[in-house]
Every structure is written in structure tokens, then in C-alpha cells.
Amino acid sequence: MKIIRPAYAGTLESSDLQVRITPNPEGDIEISLDSTVQKQFGAEIERVIREVLSHMGVSAATLEVEDKGALDCVIKARVQAAIMRAADSNDIQWSTLS
């Protein structure tokens, strides 16, 4: 999917995260992560984000992620929602992420 406009998904409440995504004219993926559990789980959070991006065919985007201790299923849902909004897509891929 091509990211065509800025979008976001999620909140800054406990156990949630907010994902802000914008097009990246440089043509690559840039992720800025701020997490309350960054030391323990930062690498895993970024891995999950990159997995969703790859699975949805996003190759160029800038993401700003503020995590408040979200579980993997929440991370996946928020990233997918942000991508779909930014790509102006209604094609929900229910079975794409496990």
C-alpha cells in the first residue's frame, strides 16, 4: 500500500499506543519509538511494527509511535488502522496478521 497522506490511530491511554504515519519521500521506512517499556521491549515492538508494514506492502513511510505498554495484538491493530487511513483504503485484511 502506498501512504498518500498523514494519519493516526490509537490513544495515549495506558496499555495502548498511538501511531502517526506520514508519507516518506526518501522511499524508506523510518520509525521513531517512544515507549514506557522501551528498555525491555523496544526491539520487539519495532519488529512487530515492521512485520505489519511488510505484510501490508508498505515500503515508504515515517512512523512516530508512542507506546504506553500495549500488547502485540494492539500494536498490530493500531499500525494496520493507521496504514489503511493513510492509504485511503477500505480493504480490511482480516486474516493477514496472526
TrEMBL record:
Modified residues (O-(phosphoribosyl dephospho-coenzyme A)serine): 14
A Pfam family hit: ACP
Keyword check for Lyase: yes
Major subcellular site: cytoplasm
Gene Ontology, cellular component aspect: cytoplasm
InterPro entries: CitD, Mal_deCO2ase/Cit_lyase_ACP
Domain of life of the source: Bacteria
UniProt GO molecular function: lyase activity
Kinase keyword on record: no
Alphabetically ordered keywords of this record: Cytoplasm, Lyase, Phosphoprotein
Subcellular location: Cytoplasm
Family to which the UniProt record says this protein belongs: Belongs to the CitD family.
Subunit record text: Oligomer with a subunit composition of (alpha,beta,gamma)6.
Matching HAMAP family: CitD
Functional summary from the UniProt entry: Covalent carrier of the coenzyme of citrate lyase.
Name under which the protein is recorded: Citrate lyase acyl carrier protein
Native species: Vibrio aerogenes CECT 7868
Chain's gene name: citD
